């Protein structure tokens, strides 16, 4: 582990990475990268769970609206994941930090042997000073795409456990943990503890 024996998982949502028009918010992304780089340079180990592939892919494909079919979501995710990693790689390299990509599905983290492989990979990357960037593999994990309930929030909690993290920080436009998606369920309540 790092100098302070602290490992931090940070989850960033699509709404944080995009502006009101749905375009990539490069200024906010650069600030995020700068802060995460500073945290790593202080001796902490950083794991990033990042949403945003579909939105970034939609922009790269010049789509004027959100994709409505599963095939278009998968295609946008495939294009967007490349672009998203390009953005991260470019921005982190300005701070002399190497990043790596790990794409996951529920079935991977639920399988003990595969989960161990993910854990080993994260551990080795952190030992090398690399920031692992994880995302749901939206091109094959269609059950998560169909649910559209912020599955990367759940994924980040799983990754915090897999990575034996000391802290999980979720950057979101939702003001807390709710009993249900407050955008869909008006009776959703904040879970205080």
Structural overview:
47% of the residues lie in helices and 15% in strands. It has 193 residues and is of the alpha/beta class. Strands 3-4-2-1-5 form a five-stranded parallel sheet, sandwiched between helices. Helix 2 crosses helix 4 (70-93). The longest helix has 24 residues, at 70-93.
Alpha-carbon Rg, integer: 16 Å
How does the helix and strand content classify structurally?
alpha/beta
Instruction: Profile the largest sheet.
Output: 5 strands, parallel
Helix proportion: 40-55%
Q: Quaternary status of these chains?
A: single chain
| SS element count, helices | 8
Low-pLDDT residue spans:
145-150
Strand element count: 5
- Give me the side-by-side strand order of the main sheet: 3-4-2-1-5
The overall average pLDDT, rounded, is 88
- List SSEs in N-to-C order: EHHEHHEHHEHHE
Shape: globular
Give the termini separation.
29 Å
Q: Beta-strand percentage? A: 15-25%
Layout of strands and helices, then pairs:
Blueprint (H helix, E strand, L loop, with lengths): L6 E6 L1 H4 L8 H16 L3 E6 L2 H8 L9 H24 L5 E6 L1 H5 L1 H16 L3 E6 L5 H6 L3 H12 L4 E5 L22
Parallel strand pairs: 1-2, 1-5, 2-4, 3-4
Helix pairs in contact: 2-4, 3-4
């Amino acid at each position: 582990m790092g100098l302070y024996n602290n490992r931090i998982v940070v989850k960033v949502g699509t709404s944080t990475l995009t502006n009101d028009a749905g375009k990539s918010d490069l200024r906010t992304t650069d600030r995020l990268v700068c802060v995460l780089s500073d945290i790593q340079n202080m001796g902490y180990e950083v794991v990033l769970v990042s949403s945003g592939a579909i939105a970034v892919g939609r922009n790269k494909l010049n789509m004027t609206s959100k994709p409505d079919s599963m095939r278009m979501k998968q295609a946008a995710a495939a294009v967007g994941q490349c672009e998203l990693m390009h953005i991260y790689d470019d921005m982190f390299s300005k701070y002399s930090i190497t990043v790596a990509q790990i794409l996951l599905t529920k079935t991977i983290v639920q399988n003990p042997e595969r989960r161990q492989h993910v854990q080993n990979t994260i551990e080795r990357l952190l030992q090398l000073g690399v920031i692992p960037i994880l995302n749901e593999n939206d091109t094959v994990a269609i059950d998560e795409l169909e649910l559209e309930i912020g599955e990367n929030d759940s994924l980040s909690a799983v990754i915090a456990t897999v990575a034996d993290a000391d802290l999980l920080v979720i950057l979101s436009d939702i003001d807390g943990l709710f009993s249900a998606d407050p955008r869909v369920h008006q009776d959703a309540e904040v879970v205080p503890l």
